[in-house]
Sequence to fold (266 residues):
Amino acid sequence: MAGISVPKSKKLKLIFNNDVEVDYVIHETELAEKWFAKIKHLIKVPFDPHDSAMGDLSDLPRIYKEFCDFAGIDHEQFDQVDQELCNRLHKLYEDHHDRLAGVRNNTILYKFHNSVHAHESTKDYKTGIVTGWGVYEGPLTQYFNCGDFYEKSMLKNNLYLPWAELGKKPLTYFKNQEPNDQKRFNTLAKPHITFRAMFKVATQDKTPSVLNPAFLQWFEKYKQGWLAHHNIHKWDEIDEESAPLLAITDYKGDLRGCAVRKIIAQ
Fold:
């Protein structure tokens, strides 16, 4: 009698900067399989420091000037960084992104974008170690409705696919006091529809909390138009605060403060 062929689970190992090694098994979903296929092409490519929260984003005035010099546009002087300024700088980034995205050596474009978000008054609570390749992932970025794969909760040390749109989540849009305008909301607020070759190691368990009632009341006015614009069917606390599961580990140690140094695919 012929034996039954059982496919071997796909595995990888992460080596952190403190030399801790953690083994993972790839989650059995279409998204996780596609992600694993992506990163196998990038294992020998260096991580991008600004896409991996390792670069210095603190000096926004200097980074902003570098961006303007690269873009060939005038820059203004400012002493105080507040949310209104961040909103204006983010709009500047959006206005020039498509033109500069194809220019060689354009890492300042994304460094500027990340620095703006790092100075916003409502930053996401840091619950994981994000690692990515930035512009070096190239054509491996693609459109994919990642929202269909979001987990109801996130578990410590597992790998998840982070939201990485060129925009803001709806709750962040609301908190940042962006314009009360359907067209602008449709353009700037984004669901998770860009599938990038990056990942996040969760550093704590997380269950999404109930969304702010004031936001829900505001969102109700724009919700249906926004959902239809992006061709998705829902947006709730899971979409705001969770993520798609990529890989599972039984490692129980504390990885807070660590950075991923190397990936080994098995």
About this structure: The first helix runs from residue 30 to 39. The radius of gyration is 19 Å. The chain has eight helices and nine strands.
